[in-house]
Structure formats: structure tokens, C-alpha cells
Amino acid sequence: MASKTIGDNSRIRTDERVPRSNMKPVRPLRGRFTHSRVSELLTAIHGEEEYKKMQDSGVDKRMMFGTNPHYQALVVGEELRDIEGNVLVPKMPPSKSIGALILPRLEETFSLEGAKDPSNQMNYTPDDDEVYGKILHKYDEIVLAYASPVCSAHCRYCYRLDLFNKDTGKMGCSPEELRDYIVNYNTKLKENGDIDPETGDRRYPIREVLLSGGDPMVLTNAMIYRFLVAAGEAGVSILRIGSKEWAFRPERFDEQFAETLKIVHEKYPHMHINFVSHISHPDEFLLRDDDGNYIPNDGGAGYKWMDISREAVQRMLRLGFTTIENQTPIISKVNDDAEALRILHEEIRRMGIKPKYLFQGRDIEGHKAFSVPVEQAWKIHNDAMKGLSDTCRSRFAMSTEWGKMEVMSVIDPIALPEDRSALPGRLFHVLDEVLADGLIVFKAHRSPHEAESQGDLIIAKRNPEALWISGYEDRIIYDSRAQKDDKYDGLIEMLLMAMSSNVFEKFLVGKDGEHIGLGAANDPDKEKEAKKAEEAREKVTA
Fold first, then answer.
1. Closest CA to 475 of 435, 504, 427, 502
2. pLDDT by residue (tens digit) across 436-471?
């Protein structure tokens, strides 16, 4: 539903009580390969020969390198202390999994296939000049604002690469622009009786805001305060903050930030704050011994957390008006391991973080270096959920142009009898055409705007090589994205193909298997039927 800002865009002032957080000990390092410190660090890690190959291949042109002292200490296995000598990261063996998350890979440029704007997010930005490219409004009840264009380290698989590289028109949003858009949208919707005047469909008011980017938690407390007040002034119920700082720099969730949230809560006591953490692997928060094994708690359940990580979580949850939910993609060489994911789920839930989603890696440019095939990722997730109660489990989903699709099941191929005579000819061909590869079932867990397809399914023949929904488009049997009368088109085409193939075999092949043509047995009726089958087959294959 189109809208135009009608607010006065009055500036939101920062409360003078908002304190500053000191992040100097974990200040980020970002840069291309021409940056001297970047070059020195990556040469030490990869070696001169490998680093030179990455330079020549233009790996940094696809995405610049980004790290920070906390995460880098985990990658290389070094101790990190703050200015007063307090240990932030204890010395542990280097983590290959964490290294694979931020360290450039030569194979990133082997194939640059993929989308500049994954899931066509720009199709869901409002057509209002003031917020175009700054806000994503895909689902009625929630808007996403690009609050920050940067992160404190760079995930090499990042699907917001176009925001960093300024490729598609995405840009940062101000707190005032966010507030005014929400107020305007909800006002217009209420005036129309919650009905879209263009379509006549029931629509829903904005009740939630997701601050994203980049990472909103790299902003100062003063700027975060302004965004929270913007949400409060707009009357939203829940303010979400999506951040990987829980893993990159848990130091960010300090007492000063907690005090900032308390000040906001005084003004808007009915607005809940929900953190969406991006924790990808247990190595990001658990202590490990000299052999790289996690250290069990003394006389209790679970494993020992790094103090800085545990305190960050506990400090935020103690506030009483906050929750934390976790989501992360399954990425090759990072967390494509069922046991690591099981420990991740179990440990964060024990600490009070609710597992929410594991995602299929998006089809960004260069995604083939990072993505695990969909069906393999589904199995990894399914295996990881074994032995976990429902409070510890997540959904495995794909965040597509058509909404979030949960991968519900991967079904094995049908076992047809070797003796074809055991089944009627046509039935054998139908079953072979539709079920011989097995099936994969997707559920429309979230669907855009009026949520018409929510809860419906997409069923397709399996493709073990598929990395995204695009790998199934030519084998879909039932498609909830299609118009009501067209959802079974894929199945109908397959049935026609199978049935026409059977007719051809019946009338073009003699009893001894020899090809004898349409005039088989000189039977005019059979010849007519065979010609009709040929026409049907040509129609299907055209």
C-alpha cells in the first residue's frame, strides 16, 4: 500500500542522561587489500602465495575485509585484554570455523553467479522518495530500517553486500524518517478501515520495527536511543535489534548500554525490546581447552562460557523488558556440522536465548563458495535437532522474494518394482516421472502484505545440487505462489508427459522391442490414438 510521509520530521533529541560506551579496545579494522594493516594480517594468516592469488583474483573487490580485536583473537588463538588488563578473550587454540566466517577465500571469485539484491528486497521498499531504499516493508505488521551501513567485522557470505557496495539503492534511514513512515502508514490504514483501497484486501498496521543494516549495535548509545524513541513515538509494540555483536564484540552490551535501554523504558514502558542475535557457532562464546574441546561446567550441566559473552547475555535479560532470539545461516566450513549446531542450540537456550531460525545461505554474488546444497543443509539441521526439546529447536527456512519458506521435509524416491508388468504401464510412468527423484516440501511460513499464501506449500521433485529455490523452479509439482487455478500446473505437465510417453512406447514399439512406427500392426484406430499422443507430447514439450 503506497504512502507518502505526512509527519513534521521534527528531530528526536537525545536524553542528556544517555551514557557513552567505551569500545576503543575492540575498534574494527576494515579495508581493501591495499590497506597496510589488512595486508600484513592476511599475509600472516594465508601466506604470501595464497594472499597474492586472492589479490590477483579481486577477492577484496567483491567485498572488503573487516575484523575487530575480539573476533580476531578467537580466529588466531590469541589473548585479548582491555586497557586495564582485564581478560576479554582468553588464549585458546585458533578456531577454523570462526576464521572461515570472516577470512577471505580464493574461491569467492571462481563464480560470481548470484543476485546483487538477494530476494529482490528493493521490490518491497516504499515508493516514497523520502524513504525509498531506506526501509523494507515486506510484511504488513513489521518494517525493517537500515539503521547502520557498517558492521564491526564482515561475514564473507553477507547478503547485504549491496548495502556496503552501494549497488542497488539501499541506504541508511534516520530515526525521524522511520517514525514518520510508520505514523503515516498506520494513520492512512486506519482511515481506510484496515482495507487496501487498491485491492480491497484486509491489511494490518505496523506493530513492530526491526533495526538492521549493517549492524545497529555499532552505532553510539545516543543514536540507538534516538531510534528507540522513534519506535516509541510511532506507537509500536516491539522493537527488534538485529545484531552479530553478540559474537563479534559482546563488550558492546555493557552497563552504559543497559542504562540507555532503561532510560527508553521509562518513556515507553509498554514497548518490548527483542534482540535478534546472529550467533553462528559455539566457538564464538564457549571456552575451549588446549585440544580445542569445550570445557564442561563443574558439577553442573552444559559448558563454560567466556565471561564477557555470558555477562552480555545476563545483563540484557536482567532488564526484564528484553528477550533474545537467535538466527544464523548454515555456511560451508563454518557451521555445516550437526553436532556443532546441536551444542549451539542447547547452550544458547540454557543461557536464555531462544533459537529461532537456521537459514539457507542466500544466493548473493559469489554464494557458491559458501552455500551448502538445500537438501544437505536440511539434513544437517534435522540431525542437529535430534535429542533437543521443542524449547531448544529452530526452523530451517529460506528467506525468499515470496517470504520465508520453511523447508518441511525431504522425501526419499519411490522404490518401483523392477518387473514393470507388476504395474499398469501408464501408472508406472506416472510414478516414475513424479516420484522417482523424491520430493522436497516447502511451507510458506511468512508471506508478504496480505499474507495470502501463508501456510500453503510448494512441493517439488528433489534436486541434490540446488542451492536456492531457483534450483527447483523447473520441477515444481504444486506451487502456492501461483494463482488459485494454476497451482497444480507443474503436476499436470508431468502427468501429461508421463502418459504421452507411455502411449508412444505402446504404439511405436513392437512386441519384440523393434521400432515399427505409427502404423503399428496396420491398425487405423491405434494409428489415430498414437497421433493424438504425439500431438499431446509436442504440446507439453513445446
1. 435
2. 999 999 999 887 876 678 889 999 999 999 999 999
A 10 A CB-CB count for 305 gives: 24
Cα dihedral sign, 164-166-167-171: positive
Asked whether the beta carbons of 247 and 284 are under 8 A apart, the reply is yes
Q: For residue 83, how many other CB atoms are within 10 A of its CB?
A: 8
In 3D, which of 105, 95, 216, 212 has the Cα closest to residue 156? 105
Are 164 and 63 within 8 A, CB to CB? yes
CA distance readout (Å), 344 to 334, 353, 413: 13, 10, 32
CA 222 – CA 113 distance, rounded (Å)? 40
Please report where in the chains the cell 538445500 appears, as a residue.
374
Decide if 394 contacts 327 (C-beta within 8 A). Answer: yes
pLDDT score for 1: 54
Q: What is the pLDDT of residues 382-415, one digit of tens each?
A: 999 999 999 999 999 999 999 999 999 999 999 8
Q: Are 344 and 329 in contact (CB under 8 A)?
A: no
> Is residue 406 a contact partner of residue 442, using CB atoms and an 8 Å limit?
yes
Q: How many residues does the chain have?
A: 542
Position 4 confidence tier, pLDDT thresholds 50, 70, 90: very low
pTM: 0.89
